TrEMBL record:
Keyword annotations of the record: Membrane, Transmembrane, Transmembrane helix
Domain of life where this protein originates: Archaea
Residues that span the membrane, as ranges: 12-32, 38-57, 78-96, 102-120, 132-154, 206-230, 250-273, 285-301, 307-328, 340-360, 416-437, 449-472, 478-496, 503-523
Listed name of the protein: Glycosyltransferase RgtA/B/C/D-like domain-containing protein
Keyword Ribonucleoprotein among UniProt keywords: no
Lineage of source species: Archaea, Methanobacteriati, Methanobacteriota, Stenosarchaea group, Halobacteria
């Protein structure tokens, strides 16, 4: 049952925003006919569904809020089931030697059980400490089983950073990396070196015991931030939503400065919302300044994203000082009325220090600031344009590579599986944004979250559609998930309070059943051993593959890149070429060019068995990278001699007789 039309208030801001959202979703639908891009195909439907559910929650007359709750014996038993299941994940990893599809299936069930407890446990049985313990333990087990089962490191950039760390450790000075941009942002490297010295452990273990442990523990900052805005149940839900996200998991596996930058970003977000919600002191602002300096000295991309967050907070301040939102209209039963916090000094300090540090940071024979501005200007002049979509994610590359060869149903489905968790959270975020734009609920803290999420979505989704990827949008997702998780929890809370029990149960059950598994099966969560190994490259290597890298370095003498002639460049697949070059085994290594149904024409090549069975990248005749399964005889030609092989990896060079 609904109110009469005359009783509706269509000019209320959240109502207008929901209606505009519906219209915008309809306008965006035709874009999917102009370009094939997963977010063009899906975001309009997500936006439309979220707006429709919000309008339904606003005007549905059924005010019954009685929801089904788990029986008390079940609620008391599930934590034990989850903890036992986490033990089973450890045993599975040890027995199977890797995180397999069975592992991810079990993990998805356990994650769903955690979300079900949060959503459906009665108030009497709800225990936030026990639930937070399950969330943190799940995050620890899910990440550290991957680190345990993987020889070497997971990812690409980590190999370069560990080379820097080893150089700093050996020379006991930052001058070891004075040639690199990280010379001006060395906090990550110094942290790992210090951990190794203090704990008296190898550098690899020091990385895991420092940054590796910080990553899963940092999700508690989401709880602390959200609990400043809503009750404990929804704060715990936001924590679980964030901890399960694929990109956050990825930076818990691929431990680089981005990982530590994310930790500082979460701390800044908490401190920022805190000063907006409590009677702050100079100590609170001092903490913000200290954290700002820490992130600037850790990672450039994280610094830029933090600047976006601070800019969003400043814009929120302006809106509430001179904008349309009056403090007299604030609903104190939702958010406590409080004068907007003046952030101009903090913003100016961050921008000033960032520009100063970047101006002194060496990068490609210029300063980091000059080089980045030069790249951005070049992009605007040469490649920017509407719907000039630049491929970025692995899923997009797979789709494009398979377009000419009639993609199978699985090939078409995998990109949507990778994005499904993000789309579910995006829908909840839209609902949360509509809730907080109500004049009686608008407040600087929640508007900061809304504006930060909106601006980040522009960098992540909109700019790449114009061919602008200079800001490395794939690095933004984990940071974006922080305001999205908080707003998403607020959005689900809104729907629970407004929709009829039947609709609420449907929404929550679908969310609990699909969201955890979708995030865990997404490629970012299993980069070391992809679930869809024929669609996604493996960003980790076996003992034999790592032994081959070391042996190639010994065999060739580990020459300096300037000593290698162009015809002596080593060619293999991507990403294997990155570990050979970044470890210094053979600096001049690149991706091999293998024409479709043809053979490579290179003098020095490396083949590994993974190239013939799983997804690896090679360049085609036009120089474009695509997934291709390549047998050894397509790389090593009859005129080649085999100079090294260990059963999994073979290196071929010109035969002396030729």
């Amino acid at each position: 049952m609904y109110n009469k039309i005359s009783q509706l208030r269509p000019l209320r801001l959240d109502t207008v925003a929901a209606i505009v959202g519906l219209l915008l979703a309809l306008v965006l639908l035709p874009l999917r006919l102009l370009a094939s891009q997963i977010y063009l195909n899906t975001v309009p439907f997500v936006l439309g569904t979220a707006c429709a559910l919000y309008l339904l929650a606003l005007y549905q007359q059924d005010t019954s809020t009685a929801l089904p709750r788990l029986p008390r014996p079940v609620a008391m038993t599930l934590p034990s089931v989850v903890l036992a299941g986490l033990g089973a994940l450890v045993v599975l990893t040890v027995l199977q030697g890797a995180r397999t599809p069975v592992y991810f299936a079990v993990a998805s069930v356990l994650a769903t059980l955690v979300v079900v407890q949060i959503l459906f446990t009665s108030e009497e049985a709800f225990n936030r400490r026990l639930l937070l313990l399950q969330v943190v333990l799940f995050a620890l087990v899910f990440r550290f089983t991957a680190l345990y089962a993987t020889p070497g490191y997971i990812g690409i950039d980590v190999w370069t950073h560990m080379e820097f760390i080893e150089a700093i450790y050996a020379e006991e000075s930052l001058s070891a990396i004075s040639h690199d941009k990280h010379y001006a942002s060395p906090f990550y490297h110094l942290l790992v070196v210090a951990s190794s010295l203090l704990l008296d452990v190898p550098l690899r273990l020091a990385l895991y015991l420092s940054v590796g442990i910080l990553m899963p523990l940092s999700v508690l900052l989401i709880y602390a931030t959200t609990n400043l805005l809503v009750s404990e149940r929804w704060a715990v839900l936001a924590t679980a939503l964030f901890a399960l996200t694929s990109h956050v998991t990825m930076w818990g596996l691929h431990l680089i400065p981005t990982s530590l930058g994310l930790v500082f970003f979460l701390a800044i977000l908490y401190a920022l919302i805190r000063v907006m919600r409590i009677e702050y002191t100079m100590r609170d602002f001092s903490l913000l300044i200290l954290l700002s300096v820490a992130v600037i000295l850790t990672h450039q991309v994280s610094t830029f994203i933090t600047l976006v967050l601070l800019l969003a907070a400043f814009v929120a301040q302006v809106v509430f000082v001179i904008g349309p939102f009056g403090l007299t209209r604030l609903d104190t039963s939702v958010f406590r009325a409080k004068k907007p916090v003046n952030l101009i000094g903090l913003v100016v300090f961050n921008f000033g220090l960032t520009i100063f540090v970047w101006s002194l940071t060496p990068y490609r024979e210029q300063s980091f600031l000059a080089t980045v501005l030069s790249f951005f200007t070049q992009t605007l002049e040469e490649s920017a344009g509407f719907l000039n979509i630049a491929s970025g994610s692995t899923g997009d590359e797979t789709t494009e590579a398979s377009a000419e060869a009639a993609p199978t149903l699985l090939e078409q489905a995998v990109p949507y599986i990778d994005a499904l968790g993000f789309l579910f959270l995006l829908g909840a975020t839209f609902a949360g944004c509509l809730y907080v734009v109500h004049r009686r609920r608008a407040e600087q803290s929640v508007f900061t979250l809304l504006l930060a999420a909106a601006i980040m979505l522009v960098f992540v989704l909109v700019l790449p559609m114009f061919g602008i990827r200079n800001f490395i949008p794939t690095r933004w997702f984990a940071f974006l998930y922080a305001p999205m998780a908080i707003l998403g929890a607020i959005g689900l809370r809104t729907l629970v309070r407004g929709l009829s029990p039947g609709v609420v149960v449907t929404v929550l059950v679908l969310f609990a059943l699909i969201y955890p598994g979708a995030m865990l099966f997404a490629v970012e969560s299993n980069a070391e051993n992809p679930v869809f190994s024929d669609q996604h490259e493996q960003l980790a290597y076996t003992d034999a593959e790592l032994a081959a890298v070391s042996s190639i370095g010994e065999l060739t003498g580990g020459p300096d890149g300037q000593e290698i002639r162009p015809d002596q460049q080593l060619h293999t697949d991507h990403p294997y070429q990155t570990v050979i070059s970044r470890t210094g085994a053979y600096p001049s290594t690149t991706t091999a060019t293998v024409p479709d149904d043809g053979v490579a024409d290179h003098e020095y090549v490396v083949h590994r068995t993974t190239q013939s069975t799983d997804a690896t990248y090679f360049n085609d005749a036009d120089g474009e990278g695509r997934i291709e399964q390549v047998s050894q005889d397509r790389l090593c030609q009859p005129h080649h001699a085999t100079v090294y092989t260990n059963g999994e990896v073979t290196m071929c060079t010109p035969s002396p007789t030729t």
